[in-house]
């Protein structure tokens, strides 16, 4: 750490990734605006904010799932964690206005991304080599959500927006209000959104259950329960509600700008499936209550409890941000961009009281349903020094993050941990006669501090993982003609294991597994090669990108084989027999973890390869513009021993039609998802499906400068029983069924 600190006094700056706004109407492939006007020739998707605002309210992942190379790992409607080219979790960084979002989505598959999509300017997605320039360990890429809460330029006119939305699939609604104005030279931005959605509908018979999940609990009872649930037309505990508030104030001038923002987001959402917990509880009742209740009576109670039990999460996040830029205009330094953010985030997972629950039941019952609190507090500083000249663009960057994570309660599968990262970076871009070249280098001093508790004996082993990692990227672009260009990119990105991968040690009900990390894991190293082609002559357009990503020491959560697992269970059973006289009150074997699958974080070299292609045509039609396109994305992922990497989405074909005429926009898309037969250990094949979506948006000019925008949308019009292969709960929690909705946006 000291050797880097001494260097910081000379270099100083962050990849806070100040992202300049772009006036784009559709998602397009463009050069990056992530570092001012510097061109980075790797693909960047820019999704205009109106595309998100005018469409149905969804999770972040679901909002971008239809774009090539982007998919999600869902856990009900509220949770949709993005995947880029098969990479997920800590390999994909979610940014808000250029700074990494510090929530706890990386600590659990059932944790949502704490990102508000209300009144955003755009979403920017960088895939491949360029992403390392903007965040640490971005083997997969970055997703940056940009709003105008801290205005870099003065608002010219006051603006008030109000909106309302309703959806049929969840019988829910959403309302928002946003206000912007300049008061005596100060830009003020206020936004508020409230969303309440109920359990979402699915096609009858969409919920699947494996018989082996209930082996211990009585065939008759669970047969009846399975039969009942398979006929449900909705997903229990799939509701969610979000309340988001943001406030920003800034001052801007020729000298630059400076501002502060305060963001608060609170949510409450049900967890539709939570590992094998239901089975554990009912199994205990079978064993311990059979003397007091006959079989029929217990069966009735079993069904009632299953229906009435509610597992849910509440989140509360507060972030305070200072952000600005100062135009030095000196001989050496042109500009300094600086950021500071303090974030406090908590997620509480709890069981709701069952109907008819007796408040005087014993303490053991209350302890069993005690909440689990996930907390993450982070402080981040950064600055970028622009030292560009007439020949080349150059930037020096500095970033420092101090992050504390803790889990307290029933599902405390990891002891408190600290993550400290100090980053130095250098970026240079220059035009040559035939090529444009970009080069980026980052050095990260990473310290992970945590401990692992031996569950059998209570011994605590403390660990400090301290390592220097380096990454670099180079990209070369050439314009072959005015309408055709080629881009080459190579990146070597190093990623230190996350705190979960290092220190995890306990039952993780969201994944249905008893997970074990490994403090001895080494860094992942990704060597990524990407080549892309772009053609656009105004009428015809085409895009193709091919990539190979060799990942040394790839970290994956792998289920133990049956022989090892059986051995483990036998040892655990013997242990419990010896401890019975001292722990007479314990009901569960395996430390109360029931039939959870044992899984370990292990390392093995892996190779990811794939491609994205798209071509189409734009033509004039009836005083409007019609665009037809076809796209396909494919990702393959295997370990060096020939086994498949788990939870990789299958190939997809995307057909789209878009028509624009004056104030009317009509969109129709078909996403054809193929069957996934290349599944990893512990997985099953996933059937293909077709997702047909549409949207019609009409704008009406009212009195003065007021405008009303009305959007009619339909999702999954074919009412497909669709399952996402990347989801840990694909069989129990299918994607929503047919959904109709309407959305109003009124601007004054």
- Count of DSSP strands: 32
* N-to-C span: 53 Å
Q: What is the total number of structural domains?
A: 1
Alpha plus pi helix count: 9
The CATH architecture category equals Beta Barrel
CATH H level: which superfamily? TonB-dependent receptor, beta-barrel domain
Profile the largest sheet.
Answer: 22 strands, antiparallel, barrel
Short précis:
By secondary structure, the chain is mainly beta.
Short descriptors:
single chain; 748 residues; mainly beta; Maltoporin, Chain A; 6-stranded mixed beta sheet; 9 helices; 49% strand; globular; disordered N terminus
Would you give an account of this structure?
By secondary structure, the chain is mainly β. The chain has one domain (2-747): Maltoporin, Chain A (Beta Barrel), CATH 2.40.170.20. The protein is 11% helix and 49% strand. It is built from nine helices and 32 strands. It has a 22-stranded antiparallel β-barrel. A six-stranded mixed beta sheet has the order 1-2-7-8-5-6. The chain has a two-stranded antiparallel sheet with strand order 3-4. A hairpin with a 7-residue loop joins strand 14 and strand 15 (335-351). The longest helix is centred in the last third of the chain and has 18 residues, at 562-579. The model is unreliable at 1-43, 211-230, 276-307, 354-367 and 562-591 (pLDDT under 50).
């Amino acid at each position: 750490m000291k050797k880097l600190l001494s260097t910081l006094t000379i270099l100083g700056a962050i990849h806070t990734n100040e992202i300049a706004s772009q006036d784009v109407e559709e998602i397009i492939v463009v050069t990056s605006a992530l570092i001012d006007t510097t061109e980075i020739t790797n693909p960047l998707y820019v999704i205009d904010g109106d595309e998100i605002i005018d469409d149905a309210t969804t999770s972040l992942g679901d909002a971008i799932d239809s774009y090539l190379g982007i998919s999600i790992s869902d856990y009900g409607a509220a949770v949709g964690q993005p995947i880029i080219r098969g990479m997920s979790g800590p390999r994909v960084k979610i940014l808000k206005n250029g700074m990494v979002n510090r929530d706890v989505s990386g600590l659990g598959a059932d944790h949502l991304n704490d990102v508000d999509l209300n009144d955003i300017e755009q979403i920017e997605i960088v895939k491949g080599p360029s992403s390392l320039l903007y965040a640490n360990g971005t083997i997969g890429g970055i997703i940056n959500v940009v709003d105008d809460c801290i205005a870099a330029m003065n608002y010219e006119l006051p603006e008030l927006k109000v909106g309302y939305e309703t959806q049929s699939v969840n019988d829910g609604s959403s309302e928002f209000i946003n206000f912007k104005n300049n008061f005596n030279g100060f830009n003020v931005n206020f936004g508020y959104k409230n969303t309440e959605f109920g359990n979402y509908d699915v096609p009858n018979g969409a919920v699947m259950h494996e018989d082996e999940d209930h082996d211990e609990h009585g065939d008759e009872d669970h047969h009846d329960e399975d039969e009942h649930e398979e006929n449900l037309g909705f997903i229990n505990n799939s509701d969610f509600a979000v309340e988001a508030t943001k406030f920003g104030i800034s001052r801007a001038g020729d000298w630059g700008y400076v501002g502060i923002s305060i963001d608060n987001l609170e949510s409450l959402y049900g967890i539709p499936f939570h590992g094998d917990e239901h089975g554990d509880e009912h199994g205990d009742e079978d064993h311990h209550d059979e003397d007091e209740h006959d079989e029929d009576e217990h069966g009735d109670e079993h069904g009632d409890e299953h229906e009435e039990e509610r597992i849910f999460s509440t989140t509360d996040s507060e972030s305070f941000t200072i952000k600005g830029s100062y135009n030095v205009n000196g001989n050496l330094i042109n500009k300094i961009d600086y950021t500071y953010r303090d974030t406090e985030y908590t997620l509480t997972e709890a069981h709701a009281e069952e109907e008819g629950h007796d408040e005087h039941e014993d303490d053991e019952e209350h302890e069993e349903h005690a909440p689990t609190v996930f907390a993450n507090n982070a402080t981040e500083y950064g600055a970028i020094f622009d030292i560009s000249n007439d020949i080349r663009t150059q930037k020096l960057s500095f970033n420092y993050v101090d992050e504390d994570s803790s889990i307290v309660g029933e599902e405390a599968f990891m002891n408190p941990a600290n993550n400290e990262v100090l980053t130095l970076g250098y970026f240079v871009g220059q035009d040559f006669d035939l090529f444009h070249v970009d080069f980026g280098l980052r050095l990260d001093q990473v310290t992970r501090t945590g401990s692992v508790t031996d569950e059998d004996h209570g011994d605590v082993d403390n660990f400090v993982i301290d390592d220097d990692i380096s990454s670099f990227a180079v990209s070369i672009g050439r314009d072959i003609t005015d309408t055709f260009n080629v881009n080459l990119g190579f990146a070597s990105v190093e990623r230190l294991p996350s705190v979960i991968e290092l220190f995890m040690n306990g039952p993780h009900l969201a994944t249905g597994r008893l997970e074990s990390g490994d403090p001895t894991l080494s860094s992942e190293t990704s060597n990524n090669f990407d080549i892309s082609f772009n053609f656009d002559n105004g009428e015809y357009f085409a895009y193709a990108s091919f990539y190979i990503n060799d990942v040394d020491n790839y970290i994956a959560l792998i289920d133990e084989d049956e022989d090892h697992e059986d051995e483990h269970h036998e040892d655990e059973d013997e242990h419990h027999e010896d401890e019975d006289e001292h722990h007479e009150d314990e009901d569960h074997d395996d430390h109360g973890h029931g039939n959870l699958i044992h899984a370990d974080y292990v390392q093995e070299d892996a190779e990811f390869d794939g491609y994205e292609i798209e071509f189409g045509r734009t033509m004039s039609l009836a005083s409007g513009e019609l665009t037809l396109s076809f796209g396909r994305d494919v990702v393959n992922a295997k370990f060096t021993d020939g086994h498949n990497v788990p939870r990789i989405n299958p190939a997809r074909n995307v057909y789209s039609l878009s028509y624009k005429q004056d104030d009317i926009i009509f969109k129709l898309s078909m996403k054809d998802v193929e069957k996934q037969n290349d599944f990893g250990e512990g997985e099953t094949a996933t059937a293909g499906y077709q997702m047909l979506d549409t949207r019609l948006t009409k704008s009406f000019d009212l009195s003065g400068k007021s405008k009303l925008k009305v959007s009619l949308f339909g999702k999954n019009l074919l009412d497909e029983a669709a399952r996402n292969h990347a989801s840990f709960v694909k069989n129990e929690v299918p994607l929503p069924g047919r959904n109709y909705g309407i959305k109003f946006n009124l601007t004054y």
